[in-house]
Amino acid sequence: MSGQTLYDKLWNQHLVKQRDDGTALIYIDRHMLHEVTSPQAFEGLRLANRKPWRLDTNLATTDHNVPTTLIERSQGNSGIKDPVSLIQVQTLDDNCVEYGITEFGINDPRQGIVHVVGPEQGATLPGMTVVCGDSHTATHGAFGALAHGIGTSEVEHVLATQCLLTQKMKNMQVRVEGELGLGVTAKDVVLAIIGKIGTAGGTGYAIEFAGSAIESLSMEGRMTVCNMAIEAGARVGMIAVDDTTIDYIGNRPYSPTGEQWEAAVADWRNLVSDPDAVFDNVVTLKAEDIEPQVSWGTSPEMVTGISGQVPDPNAAPDETVQRSHTRALEYMGLQANQKITDIKLDKIFIGSCTNARIEDLREAAKVAKGNKIADSIKLAMVVPGSGLVKRQAEEEGLDKIFIDAGFEWREPGCSMCLAMNADKLGAGEHCASTSNRNFEGRQGYGGRTHLVSPAMAAAAAIAGHFVDVRSLPANDATHAQEA
Amino acid sequence: MKKFERFEGVVAPLDRANVDTDLIIPKQFLKSIKRTGFGVNLFDELRYLDEGEPGQDCSQRPLNPDFVLNKPRYQGAEILLTRRNFGCGSSREHAPWALEDFGFKVVVAPSFADIFYNNAFKNGILLITFDEDTIDRLFDEVEAKEGYRMDVDLENQRVITHRGEILEFEVDEFRKHCLLEGLDDIGLTLKDEDAIRRFEESHRQARPWLFRQPA
Ligand code: SF4
């Protein structure tokens, strides 16, 4: 018998029951909740007179709807102007109080984007199954955990039964081998992967990211990669456990201690794919080939290197691609063959569950340091992923660097990643964004999103158009990923 | 979920093909945090003469007198008779929530959209498929006879029309079982409650750190 993949191991460790019809019940160790996808789940429980199966497994925070200016935030929930957003936030608060679920509310220093908060608290541990009513839950897979995004009905199901009803996926391994060039970050790696396999390339698979370039990434970088598994079509992304993982987890509020820590670490060491494990699909990229990436279209797979140009739809391999490229260029207001470095920006967004951790802010700050954003930039904002990230950044003086350069330094939340709060793009505005989705209208009606790394976003803010971070004069931006 | 029991109910005819989920429940009502209360906005655009907004008192809104559900003879209808591809469009679970909240227990049509089909059964609504000819005939009968009722007998997979005609229908065994037993996915999973508890206990023994709470 051949060995097991990491996914196989995690699956087997949580399998409660395999049914004849192909579905299975898997046990859930950690359930993260936020205000948008949970209200109907709680109401469903109430209507059916059910109680949550286990309270201590749940951890909630408000993130999608919260305003990010200090003035609004200082008023707590009453600073939320949109009545619908307010109701969602309040409903989560009420539900958590009613059921006794731990919640980091709007003014809790630990509040933040759910996928930043979990790992930061040690609430995401290797070997766990993690679910959240949010498609970017794969982020937690960076810890050698099995993490799924789920829908509202499934949120209710997990609350009531502590299990997820699901089907086993196929195994895919994406290997990135070699050494990343200076100035090339985790975000560039994952964008390059999506550019290669496409937004449906991972559909039906659990993806394990592996190879020497992945191993060289910090935990923040690994989370960035796993975060965007869903943009490659996969509900699940994961990375094997190694020293980097274990070092990150030590001494966090939810992490085990003492003897339990020793036992846990011994167990976690097995959370790697066996050498003879068989994958249904293996894709390999060479790290040396990856340059800083910029998305030019309205799907994350519409991406290219900074030295590249906007493709010519007429050169597309088939008619379907040609049509979608034509449509994308029209929406984005770009010309075929236009150089990426000629794309001018109106707004800059550094934030989101993809790139709002401390390392991301450090990378951006290195580029911003001592510079000023271009006059043509209407708004450049930095939105830390959590209250704790914000505090650490302030301790390191990053806030000053950003503010001096002309960026706005905001309070934590999802913010302009999906524009559910007041942070939005205007129609036709180009934004260099460190988030994960560049769909039409995602960051505001008619808004034009370009997905990039934090360093690239900061560089674009200063130049007013995209520039290659690797070409910047001797600052330490090019050493960003070594921080 | 309530058990689906045999009942006799008034039939309302919605003579329209490809009724999409946006027509069933328009998107402005999706921002609600509830899964109940959508009934007053079911078919909002067809039912009212003004534009619907969330949070309105719908009893004050001008009704479209021509819309079938507003006609006195169809008040209290529990069975919706309609045309092909009912429920197409988005995957919103709000569509069956709205139908159920309004009081519909059964929808009869020549065909249904895929995701809606799943969502309806998950929410306790029985969808019955008959061929186009039978549906045509039922439309004629319903319109001809005020107070037309149908007896729906899921157990025996048949309906008995107002005229006493017996029409048999097909339904997936598993879905039928869930409806009759009142089992939603959660109810079904909870049948394995003991297995879950046993698993949980051994999981806790093997890996206690997964259950740890911050000090
Ligand atoms: S930051 Fe964006 S992608 Fe991440 S959870 Fe929030 S809205 Fe979703």
Describe the structure.
The complex is a heterodimer of chains A (483) and B (215). With 483 residues, chain A is α/β, with parallel strands linked by helices. Chain A folds into two domains: 1-290, Aconitase, domain 3 (2-Layer Sandwich); 293-482, Aconitase, domain 3 (2-Layer Sandwich). Chain A is 31% helix and 16% strand. Chain A has 16 helices and 19 strands. In chain A, the strands form five sheets. Chain A has a five-stranded parallel beta sheet, with helices on both faces. Chain A has a five-stranded parallel beta sheet with strand order 17-16-15-18-19. Mean pLDDT of chain A is 95; it is low at 476-483. By secondary structure, chain B is α/β, with parallel strands linked by helices. Chain B contains eight helices and seven strands. Chain B has helices at residues 21-24, 44-47, 94-102, 114-122, 132-144, 173-181, 185-190, 193-206; strands at 7-14, 79-82, 106-109, 126-129, 149-153, 158-160, 166-168. Chain B has a seven-stranded mixed beta sheet, sandwiched between helices. The model of chain B has no long low-confidence stretch (mean pLDDT 93). Classes of the chains: A alpha/beta (483), B alpha/beta (215). The A-B interface holds A 13-14, 16-17, 21, 25, 27, 29, 39-40, 43-44, 47-48, 50, 53, 56, 84, 87-88, 91, 121, 125, 127-128, 152-153, 156-157, 160-163, 165, 253-256, 260-261, 263-264, 267 and B 1, 31, 33-36, 54, 93, 122, 174, 184-186, 189-190, 192-193, 195-196, 199-200, 203, 207-215. The site of iron/sulfur cluster has 13 residues of chain A, from loops.
